[in-house]
Amino acid sequence: MRRGSVVAALAVAALAVPVWPGTASADVIFDQADAEELAGILAEAYEAQRVCYGWVVDVNNVGIQESSAGSNFGVGPALDEVPEAQSCETTVEFQADVTWTSESSEAEDSASYQVVSNPSGPTTSDLDSLQLISVDSLKGDNVDVDVFKAVSALPLLAADAGVAEPLEASPAPESAVAAANGAPTNSPGSDFWRRAGGAMLWAGALILAAVVFAVWALRSSRPAARAARAPREQAPNFLPPDWSDGPGGTVPVWDPSAGPSGTPSGDAPGTGRSTGPAVPPSRQRDAPDPGQGPGGDGGPEDRR
Amino acid sequence: MSRRGKFLLAGGLGGIGLIVLLVALLGGQSIRGHLSDNYQRVSSNGDSIVYASNKKPKAVYESIRAAVPPADVQVDPQGYFMRYSDDIVAVTASGTGSRIYIDDERRGYAHWFPFVVGVWGTGSGSGEGVRGGGPGAGK
Questions:
Q1: CA–CA distances in Å: residue A81 to residues A73, A120, A141, A158
Q2: Do you know which InterPro entries this protein is assigned to (chain B) (predicted)?
């Protein structure tokens, strides 16, 4: 049942049914059958251990106060409301407060719980060590299941605390389940992933981070290498075959007698294989400064 | 950061990841291995084995649960019942100590049928599902 329908049902009930003080309804947490089953479990424990057990869960359901209570004496009244409980030498009770706020409210749900033993017995920390219930689970969808487990564990805790005799269980004959036509269902999943799943995820994340970091390191180092190589690539590495260094060695001048030996790596001029600046052969003679070119004395052809 | 430093950092991350991976793969025990290594074997019948401990049931349950987390736990005044992928473990009182029972899933369900019926499986007279059905949604 969702919270909205619970609110509506409780609102209708509040209008239609008078509420007597001290009356608690179990159905705010449990189905009636489950509450009776829980009371029955506690009753069996009481018969064997002579310790009184009970539960009280007060719920503020969007402003409507309700309570789920019960004990080994039955569903409904809490232990302190049962006359028979006055004779209990030892009582152990699970108590919880839960506040559910409306979906539209900015306030958060809240919860708390405790184990109260009188005069002595198990404590809240004893229950916590079983990891059956938590504040978060009290605010969650499975509050009924977790409260059921917590209350069922009270006789175990009482025995562990030394205020009650431990109860022993023996395996039932296999014929019982066969007669009941029972079988396990809903495979619980892999034990390995439950045990090591977190570590596997961490390992995967670390290895992935290492790979990403290595790739980033590789890529970020390439521009620097390119920059270091760039000046060499920009330097002219050959001269056209019909040009050679001038007398001073620094200014190229045209030398018609120069052959292919002037090209680096022996590439033939005009083959398109050289790596130097691509200058069409027809323009190679026009490219230089007219004043420095062949017959660089400013002939009429050069001045055109 | 220099190129060398970046590669060292990447290598360090990868190395830690590999170590965590190896620990996850090789570390830990199965529930059967854990019980065999830590408790005294009393009897066995095929896959069904009974162990003993001089510790109280609560301490035994907490130890087992911490070492090999179960998929689900059911409790009853008579004992703790843990469900694993292929096995069911029950811890119950025995004198001042404990008895630990491990069975394969089918036999364990049969042995502890009164305590787990309707929760871990089917059977006549079971609740056929989750106990309760309470108000539900938290925020």
A1: 10, 20, 29, 22
A2: DUF4247
CB atoms within 10 A of CB B69: 16
| Cα–Cα dist B37/A191, whole Å | 18
Task: Give which of B56, B62, B88, B139 to mutate to test A binding, by max A Cβ within 10 Å.
Answer: B139
Determine the pLDDT at residue B63: 96
Searching chain B, which residue's CA lies closest to the CA of residue A135? B138
Structural domain count, chain B:
1
A92-151, pLDDT tens digit by residue? 999 999 998 988 888 889 999 999 999 999 999 999 999 999 999 999 888 999 999 999
Residue B40 lies in a domain: yes
DSSP per-residue codes, A166-188: PPP--PPPHHHHHHTT-EE-S--
Q: Which residues of A touch B111 (CB under 8 A)?
A: 171-172, 174
> Residue A288 above 70 pLDDT?
no
Check which CATH number belongs to the domain holding B93 and give it.
3.30.310
The residue of chain A with its CA nearest to that of B134 is A29
- How buried is residue A60: exposed, middle or buried, by Cβ count under 10 Å (0-12/13-18/19+)? middle
In a domain, B14, yes or no: no
Give me the domain span that covers residue B81: 29-116
In a domain, B125, yes or no: no
- Domain assignment of residue B66, yes or no: yes
Q: Distance between CA A39 and CA A26 in Å, rounded? A: 11
Q: Which residues of A touch B75 (CB under 8 A)?
A: 130, 132, 149, 152-153, 156
- Judged by phi (left if over 0) then psi (alpha if -120 to 50, else beta), residue A123 lies in beta
Asked whether the ipTM of the predicted complex exceeds the cut of 0.85, the reply is no
